[in-house]
Structures are given as C-alpha cells and as structure tokens.
C-alpha cells in the first residue's frame, strides 16, 4: 500500500505554518533594539545560509536514517551517546516550555492595549491569566483532544493574512527610502559596531525560524524524496523573504531608535504609524488569534520529548504513561507544572518577553548543534561515536552513500555546526549560563534511570559534555549569588 500522499504544496504549507509564529510580530523591535538597516541585512544573510543548512541537516538525516523516528533528539543519541541525546531532548523540551510562557505573555500584553486589566500595570493579573490559560489547555490535551486539520489550516491563514497586509500597505504607502538610508549603519544609535550589531540580532533570527526543520518529519510520506528538498528550499525562502521584508520596511517607517522603543507587538505600532489605530488593531488581532490557535499544539509539543525519552528508557517509563484517550498525561502534567513554575519565576523577576526568547533559543540550539555534528561524522567516517543499541531501532547502520553525495552532506553539516557554535558565541553570556543551570536538573532522572537499569552512565564524549554543562552552571549560580547575573 502506497502511503506517499503528502504533496509538495502541502509540505511547503507545513514549513511556513510551523515556522511563522508569534515571534515575527515582534521582529521590528527585536532587530531595531540592537542593529541598524545595514547590519540587519547582513544578519539575515548569515541567518538565511545558516538556518537553511540546519533545515537540510534534518532533511538529510531523515533520508539516511529513516528508522530514527523519535524526534530530533534521536540523531544526537545514535551518533554521540545516550546522554547527548537526552540533553538534546531536555533542551528542546525546556525551550518549548519557556516559549509557551513567552507566547502567553505576548498575547496578554497585546490584549492589554485594548483591555486595560491585562496591561503592564497589573502584572499579577497577567500572571494569573497566563496560568489559567496553561491549565485550561492541559485539561484539553489530557483528554486526548487535538486540533483538527482544518483548524491548523485556518490558523496559518489567520497568521499570514495580516503579515501580507502589513507588507503591501507599508511598501506602497508608508515606506521612505530616505528614512531607511539616513543612518544605514546605526552610527547614531548607540548599538555598537557593525559586527556587534550583527552579533546582537543572531538569536532573534533563530527564534523566528524555530520549526523550519519540521518538513523532514514528513519525508517518508512525501510523494517523492526530491519533493522534500524542493519544498524545504521554497518554504524557507518564502519565510525568509517575509521576515526580511517586514524588517526592512519597518526601518523605512521609523528610525532605529524609534523601533527600539516599541512594545513587544511592534509590527502593530509600525503599521499604526502608517495608517492609524486600525492598522494596530489588525496586526494585534492577527497576533492574538495566531497565538491562541497554536497554543494547544505547542503545549502538546512540550510533552513530546519527555514522553519519547520515557518510552525509549532514558528516564523513568512511567513519565511516558498513556491514558485511555491516547494522551501522554504524565508528561503533559509535568510540562504544565514546569510551565507554571517558570510563570512564577519570570513574573517575580519581571522577566521580559525578549529575555524569554533569548533563553528559549539557547536551549533549542542544543539539538541543532549535536545533529549537525552527527551528520559531519556520517559524512566523514560513516558512523557516530558509539553504538550501544546495535540491532535495535537506534542502530547506527545505514546504506552506503556515494562519495559525491557524502561531500555535499559534509558541507551542509559543517556549515550548520559552525553556525550553531557561532550562535552560542553571539548569545549574551547570561542566557548561556542560565541555559546551563536549566540543563543540570535533568541529570537527576537520567543518572537514576541509568543506575537502575545497570547501564553505563556516560561515555568519554559525554563526560566532556557533562563537565562543560556543570562548570557553566556553577559559574551561573555563583554569578546569581553575587548579584552579577539576572534575567
């Protein structure tokens, strides 16, 4: 029976739908706060090459290892060891948890412009509202209820239409070439050198591309393998053009300093400067509907890494328990509790949406980096570092790849790995340290499970990874204690 039913058009829609999220609505302020138009264009060029390489890493690995279907962490686990796979899943899970808090915060702060009770003047009300929304969604997904296909399609349309309206209206009505070029390199903006500006926008460019690897999941269902590659390029270029258009057009309406001073939903403010209040209302409605439409899916995604690791024996299997309605209720409950804890911590510390974005992005980078390293290993030596699961579905074996194709895979892997390392370097140090602190608690269930199963805890490479994480976490804790580190 042929199950290759996903067309290239559908694959393109999946890429665009999974990549374009709430982050795009805040991109004018995010970019404007750290860079001018010139550095912005350089940054998007680097991000375009780097994130396309990351997307192709997952596409190539899906083709070379079609039996590895336990999410993005499976590649890191097979190639570099169980703990590296676990840390990739743990990072992806925590990134998703923090992203949930960020999305809900952005939703209620936007709503606060129209419903004063949710404004920044009432942080406790917003915290309670975010908590209530989180537990309401848990109640839905724990019953095994998921969004229907038509709702996902509707959500994508709701997201894209306001963005297209923004591009068309601003391009033909509000854009000023003189304003765009008057301080092209932001020499008057107190944002540093061009290099520092480019460095500053890197995390934001990754944030708005999270999910671009999603097309590789559907490789086996595509009508042809070549469709996946073409869809990845077309979908990625479409999203990149949309992001570059919104960023560039915004600099033609407001100066870099004006953009930097905007609220989180900065696209609304830019359009309001062009056409008045109804423009802000249009964009705000698109953002709110987009966040609400995707919130259930993202909260379900939060639980997926935990459930997969439990099913694969990396953490206690009870965490992956499935109820009678087919929902991983224990993983959902743990994820919801952790989301609630982050809500409390973030609101007590008055953490901004931008800080949540930077922290979540650093955690998302973990599986990106390790998957790229695995592809480099496959292209150079044909296998990963360890093979503790030979003969199982985590076996590292695979078909022989022609030399010329391997060279292409090596180039993609190297570009993605270098780009991922550069992103860690470009990130603000405090978010790297906070990310390390967040990784350490995962050692408890992982080590306990390995000891309980009487399995080797770490291989040589994993000891290096653990040492780096623990040392960074200790440095972060010391900095927290002496007051030099804060969110």
Automatic annotation (TrEMBL):
Gene: lysI
Single GO molecular function: transmembrane transporter activity
Protein name per Swiss-Prot or TrEMBL: L-lysine transport protein
Entry GO CC: plasma membrane
Topological category with respect to the lipid bilayer: Multi-pass membrane protein
Transmembrane segments: 42-62, 83-104, 124-145, 157-177, 197-219, 231-254, 274-296, 327-348, 360-379, 409-425, 431-448, 460-481
Keyword list, A-Z: Amino-acid transport, Cell membrane, Membrane, Transmembrane, Transmembrane helix, Transport
Gene Ontology biological process: amino acid transport
Annotated compartments: Cell membrane
Family listed: Belongs to the amino acid-polyamine-organocation (APC) superfamily. Basic amino acid/polyamine antiporter (APA) (TC 2.A.3.2) family.
Matching NCBIfam families: 2A0302
Pfam families with a match to the protein in the record: AA_permease_2
Organism: Corynebacterium deserti GIMN1.010
